[in-house]
Amino acid sequence: MFLFLTVVQAIVAAALVGVILMQRSEGGGLGIGGSPSGMLSARGAADFLTRSTKWLAVAFVVLSIALAAMAVEGVGVDGVESTLDRSVTPAETVDPLGGPGAAPAPDAAPAEPVDPLAD
To answer: I want to staple 24 with a disulfide (CB 3.0 to 4.6 A). Which of 9, 28, 93, 111 is the partner?
Structure first.
């Protein structure tokens, strides 16, 4: 049921985005041609898009609340680990500044300098 409602909410969200993007910023609607009166006029399209936006937004909020309620019911307290394992000890202590107790640094420098241009 949770998966089904999630898919329905995704479809409602996509439809809501589409309906909002089809509206003019002044509230004029689509402005598609047709008869001057009726559903295909600019005024009829604006009314339809406004009503569609309202009902899709209501459906989105209701689905969000329902999904949140279902998610709270599905989560059990037993699955949450609230304690930390503090018995872990470091393998060895290493001083990054090379003070007492530091591991000896490997000798990376060669004994005599090498001249790459010498033949």
So the answer is: 28
Mention every residue, 6+ apart, whose C-beta is less than 8 A from residue 70: 1, 2, 5
Domain ranges of the chain: 2-75
- The series of mean pLDDT values per 10 residues for the chain, 119 residues long, is 91 93 66 49 72 92 92 68 70 70 54 70
Count how many Cα atoms sit within 13 Å of the Cα of residue 1 in the half-sphere of its side chain.
9
Indicate the residue type of 20: I
Q: Which residues of 83-109 are buried (b: 16+ CB within 10 A; e: fewer)?
A: eeeeeeeeeeeeeeeeeeeeeeeeeee
How many beta carbons lie within 10 A of that of residue 43, not counting itself? 14
